[in-house]
Write a structure and sequence with these properties.
The protein has 415 residues and is α/β, with parallel strands linked by helices. It contains 14 helices and 17 strands.
Length: 415
């Protein structure tokens, strides 16, 4: 009975789709005309186009544009919503296949939360249309909005269903509403699309910018690629790259269009866009870690010239962001007092501040500094326990009173 119902549904939808003389497929849904546009998905490291997201454009018979959100968010009953959702996927698949042929690019397809929640009744459509069209399911990325499916078991079943078909699965709009790290860990999805709101929050507030790399690392540990969506400016693209995202899409790279981008084409991260906030060719601005690296090298040179640790680091200690300076021997043991920044304020948790004898041999920045003499090494942002604030540690090899070691400074983290 299920196969008969699916065949009947497919036959009905195919009757709503028509192909124009130019080969483009369009759909008719009640008083609306449907068409497909595609937005490229690129790798942040190379700018290579690896896929496209299919997006629907709705127009009334008189040419007026309609807002898809109104129809997909409550303007239709269940039957109408399912019909519109499946018709969109049929059009995107046919238009994509007509242009991409047998290439290996991904097609990202959104699936309505209602269809996801009722996948046992409505989920067979995608498997059937893929089989009928001869399209490789492994090239389809089914996008599911996590916030649209509240029941965890239902979401897990739907993910398993689409993966059983052979499709990849992406969680869409992650970071909106009550996103669950625990649930995401158990789902085992292939791609997580971070919502633009996370990007804007990271640009606006230092705390979010510090935490975002940790979220990306967690998602990588879950075995998922991370895609930043809604990237509109060069600054946003660079932040997505900085925090470790693998993929991106947005106006900065390309606007949605009926024609696919050639997968041989590279869309570099510094591609100029009308909405881009940073012109291509602008001189790079030194970041604050770069400035601190220069100061630390100068302090190490003063130490090598015979200065005391206090005298060598005095210019740094007067900087507002400096928390402390200290020196480690070749075994990673702190042999000096912690010289506190003059304007850092009193440590919130002074009892937890490292003292002479503290062992930093297991810290990555120390090992990298020893392995790369004279090259400044930088830690990831972490909690400086004594001050109770986020910081990064910079370290470089330096001799103190003729003894080899590593000079370190903890600097309050900022974007």
């Amino acid at each position: 009975m299920s196969n008969l119902r699916t065949a009947s549904q497919l036959s009905h939808l195919e009757a709503l789709a028509s192909q124009a003389d130019d080969g483009v497929w369009q759909g008719q849904f009640r008083s609306l005309r449907l068409s497909s546009v595609f937005q490229p998905v690129v790798t942040l490291s190379t700018g290579r186009v690896v896929g496209h997201e299919g997006l629907v454009r709705l127009d009334y018979a008189d040419g007026r544009g309609a807002t898809p959100f109104r129809f997909f968010s409550g303007g239709l009953d269940e039957a109408g919503l399912v019909e519109l959702d499946t018709l969109c996927r049929l059009l995107h698949l046919r238009n994509f296949q007509g242009q991409a042929g047998t290439a290996d690019g991904w097609l990202f397809l959104n699936v309505s939360p209602l269809v996801v929640a009722s996948h046992r009744r409505h989920g067979e459509f995608l498997a059937n249309i893929l089989e009928k069209s001869g399209f490789d399911p492994a090239r389809v990325v089914v996008e599911i909005a996590e916030s649209g499916v509240q029941d965890g078991d239902t979401l897990a079943d739907a993910v398993a269903h689409y993966r059983q078909i052979g499709c990849l699965v992406a969680i869409d709009d992650y970071g909106v509403g009550l996103s669950s790290l625990t649930r995401l860990w158990s789902l085992g999805v292939d791609i997580v699309k971070l919502d633009r709101e996370l990007l804007l929050a990271a640009l606006a507030r230092h705390e979010e910018r510090r935490l975002l790399p940790g979220l990306v690392e967690f998602l990588h540990d879950c075995g998922a690629l991370v895609l930043m969506e809604g990237v509109e400016t060069y600054e946003e693209a660079m932040l997505a790259l900085e925090v470790g995202c693998d993929l991106a899409q947005g106006f900065h790279f390309a606007f949605p269009a009926p024609v696919l981008r050639d997968r041989a084409q590279i869309i570099p991260i510094d591609m100029p866009r009308a909405v881009s906030s940073t012109p291509v060719g602008a001189a790079p601005v030194s970041s604050w870690p770069d400035v601190w690296c220069l100061q630390l090298v100068a302090a190490a040179q003063r130490l090598a010239g015979g200065a005391t640790l206090a005298d060598a680091t005095a210019p740094m200690l007067d900087e507002i962001s400096l928390l402390r300076c200290y020196w480690l021997d070749v075994d990673g043991i702190q042999r000096s007092d912690s010289l506190l920044g003059a304007r850092a304020g009193r440590p919130r948790f002074a009892m937890l501040l490292d003292q002479p004898g503290a062992d930093a041999s297991g810290r990555g920045f120390f090992a990298r500094a020893v392995a790369n003499p004279d090259s400044v090494q930088r830690s990831r942002a972490y909690l400086q326990r004594g001050f109770g604030v986020a910081c990064v540690t910079l370290a470089v090899t330096a001799s103190l009173a003729g003894a080899p070691g590593v000079l370190c400074c903890d600097v309050a983290w900022r974007a």
